[in-house]
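Recall the central idea of this unit: under ordinary conditions, the amino acid sequence of a chain determines the structure it adopts. In this exercise we apply that idea directly, starting from the sequence alone.
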Amino acid sequence: CRPSIVPILYHILSLLFVDLDVFLCLPQPPTITLQSPKDYIVDPRENIVIQCEAKGKPHPRFSWTRNGTHFDIDQEPKVTMRHNSGTLVVDISGEKAENYEGVFQCTARNEHGTALSHNIAIRQSRSPLWSKEKIDPIVVQEGVSLVLQCQPPVGLPPPVIFWMDNNFQRLPQNSRVSQALNGDLYFSNVRKEDTRSDYICYARFPHTQTIQQKQPITVKVLNRKCVRACLRVRIGASDDRKPTFLIPSGASSTQLVLRGQVLELECIAEGLPTPQVSWTKVGGDLPTKRTSFLHHQKTMSIVNVSESDAGEYRCSAKNQLGSAHHNIRVTVRAAPYWISGPPRNLVLAPRETGVLTCRASGTPKPSIAWSMNGIPVENSIDDDPSRRVEDDSVIFTEVQPGASAVYQCNVSNEYGYLLANAFVNVLSEPPRVLTQAEKVYQVIRHHRALMDCASFGSPIPKITWFKDGSSSTLDGEPYVIHDNGTLELHVAQALYSGKYTCVARNSLGTYENHVYLEVKDPTRIMRQPEYKVVQRGMSAVFECKVTHDPSLLPTMTWLKDNDELPDDERFIVDSDTLTIAEVTEGDEGVYTCIMNTTLDHDSASAELSVVGTYPDPRPPPARPGGSVYIFLLQQLHEYFIPSRQLTFSASGEPLKFLIQYEDSLHHRGHWHNLTEAAGTRTTANLPLSPYAHYTFRVLALNTVGLSRPSAPSRMYKTEAASPDENPTGVHGSGTEHNNLVISWKPLKGIQANGPMLKYKVMWRLKDVDTDWTSVVVANVSKFVVSGTPTFSPYELKVQALNKHGSGPEPAVARGHSGEDLPVAAPDNTQVLVLNSTLVEVHWDPVSLKSIRGHLRGYKVYYWRELSLHKHNPRHVEKQILDFSGNHTHGMVPGLKPSSHYSLNVRVYNGKGEGPPSPSQMFETPEGVPGIPSFLTVSDPGLDSLTLEWGPPKDQNGRLTGYTLTYQPVNSSNEPGPAKELSLGPNETNVTLPHLKYSTRYKFYLSAKTAKGAGPAIPQEAVTIMDEGKPGGGEEQEEDEKVVWQKEYVNDSQGVVLRGLKEGLVYRVRVVAEGLDDQSPHRSEEIVVTVPAMTSRQVDIATQGWFIGLMCAIALLILILLIICFIQRNKGGKYPVKEKEDAHTDPEFQPMKDDDCTFGEYSDSEDQKPLKGSRTPSSGRTVKRGDSDDSLVDYSEGGGDGQFNEDGSFIGQYSGKSIGRDTVQGEGPESSEAPSPITTAMNSLNSFV
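Accordingly, the structure predicted from this sequence is:
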């Protein structure tokens, strides 16, 4: 290669991505650029192509090994190697592809070294047929589980499994029927509709795109009432049952997954009703962004697995009868992977020092082996004293000429390997500047300028810049020299134009290159096109006056609605105008002129509106006023300009007048309030604006309200004048880092004071420019200045113009050009740990120049790297705290105790965030643990309970144990004495003996670390009597933790619930169940309270207090009998006897003396009726319904009333006597209340 053409070749070949060292004719060891994958499965129907491409100088030679031995291509007539390539092509016509299976490796070598490809395992794809088999029909009972096995043939790669019917329609799958990962079809429970004869498993082999079919499977589902003794019936419980897992088996299992792969966990459960499956991670959260659920929640998939995904996962299956759980312990291993990329090529000059680094990781930790030119370093014949191998690095010290070689780094563990080539090229080359000589750089003023100085040399040259032959180097403001030698000017000015010299130096020589910088004036549209309102058929002319640098060639382009102009001869484009002849409504739109040069452009737009002929401006005839009879004398008396005097009169007694105007020139059809006049006046002086078409009307106002408006006056046109005010709200900001958007609030039409309203926009760099740059724009509200330096202060002015002159001198506003992202990060970031959940962060502020925008504040990014204890998973989700304003410190709360955290700080402006500060790691101390994850009570007995719990989700340190506090609670919710029990950190259950029977207890369990106890989780439970559970199962509501006991009643209308506990309140309801896909009907709930027993049920006859009470009662009765006997001997009479003796009634019943009791009055046949009752002549017994005044009617018991000693009726509060004859005409009645179950059944029957 000739050095004189090197710069030109560099410029051309760099665009083609050709390697620099190659076209510079420099020696280079081989580098592998293309190779086939490690696991290469080939199609047996196509030729085998094994790729191996490499580069180097001179071009490398290629050879191959197969299964570790030399592969002689000349001896293989079917194998050819492509020209100038190492790629092999195997022609398999008439051959079997399997004859070429094996492990191939490519070698590329030249005189400077040898590079190796990785091992390429060639395997032929296989899609074997299904073995012939006879599948007997499967007969199952309705409700049992079922598995249809697919068992596809082993293929390469494994096939894709799916189930279809004879019509090639996919079989429907749902939460009850689903396909497992191994291809089998699982039924959680079968139904009658599952009966069919075409369950067909298909296997699709993706590499050969072939599909194989299994023999159809017939399934017959028998009704529950079918006799189970039928042949080949799979006997199973078809009643409702709680879930159990079909796969996986047992209470727990393990699974291994490699980093970066997809973790698929599967749980399929059977049960009736169909169980629902859910997933959780024990002691952690699922990575929501990488987690998905397939096959109706039965499969959980986590993509791109990392070490933080290791841990224990729990799948839960649940239906109304209970739940089942299975824990899967996931272990994450990692094949070797690069930490910071593979080792990089090294170019050294003689006696220089360098390092090749092969930094990789894996689980378990991989081993690293170095080779040179394909030979292990330890076996190398060339024992180079300048080379030293230290684990993952090869260190070169004062390398010698001729030490060029290719080094192979092989990183491996039991799960895979990585092989990388990196060469060391020892070169002695004087510097060369590769940038084209005498190149001219053109840039627009105020834009950024970049001048290249691409160089090559060994040792690496040092770059310096000079201007216009000066001996002083360009270093510091306004120049910046980048690491690649490029010279940058942030803001180009005319004075920076000139000749620049780039000098490249190393120990072998010096090379100079000259370039030129030309700073051009920007392109500006000085007169923008204006908004046009043109009558149909007239012509419209848009002007676009432009200034530009005279050395640049401009090109004017016009657009309509951001598209090309219509191909119509009516559109005439001149150098600075666009004329549209005979406009039509279709010509309406936005027209844009764009002036382009080779370096920049500018554009401006205006809108065209097409209207018909103007309406007649004469006002309509006058009409009567409103209820106040107001009218207008259409007289205008001119006293002075621009005011006018309006004369009017009105009837009635108005309080005041309201004068309104319409400006038909600027706002036709809208009336505006102008001024008010007292009700006693008939004239008003009106302040008017220039260049308006006024029409006036007057309204009168009295205590009732406003009158109707008068008829409008004739139109009066004021003369135009120059603007008397400028736009307000002038503001400057940028939408991009290199522009300035100047915006303002435009004047309203009536404020223009004349036609052709425009704005003169002026700007200059504050404290830099002395002259104002200005441009005149149309009646718009903003103007964009392009090519401004990033976030620089500007002074701004906007002045109103019209055809008659300019407005007053505008006020100066200030603004900034567009912001860019900050370029610096906060320095000296420090973290002060205050406690286990709070740290304080300090940082040094970023300089305003580096912020490159308005300082909005600082953001602290922090994330939890890992927990100090294995029970807590690793989290990498970043959290952000925003500190607005110029803060230099802040508090970071809410941290997890006992954890490693990383933190960095970033400054941000209106554009966005800057780079992060170096990450600071800190460690939070231990804290008190969180609440235990759960606390449940199981196995309640007469005097014992078993508690089970889970460790806290947030352990916040190393657990030292648990504290269990429990105490009894009486029926008044008054707690009894508390007991405390200390438990070990690894315990998850405890049985409490010697408790009181039939007693409610409260439990409080808290976890402890060295920092103390955390919050306690409460629970309550009641010890029970030693009796069985009522009913036949459990049903748990989904919306609350209530367990319902079930008692099947079939078609009966009532049921007796046994085994209820004394002192408890029960909720009772009746549920009618239909088929599985029908929702059950539930009756209203009834609350039943079972009376409490204060003690055990014992034989009361053996109790001392009962014996004493009976003795006292016997003694009392004995005393009463003695008193009665004494009274009888005295012959005394009771008062009631004396009263009855006064009446001589033969039907009177005396008191019975033989038993010392009063006589009873009854309606039975062996007793007489009471006095005063009417007795039938037939002598039959008086019935309840036969007498109107019998005292029986006043007895609640109906016939068992008695009198006491003073003659009062003592039976009025007594209940009905058991065993008495029932009253005629009334059926038998029960004194017991109806059963709640019966009431609920009757209610449900009426509902159904």
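The longest strand covers residues 322-338.
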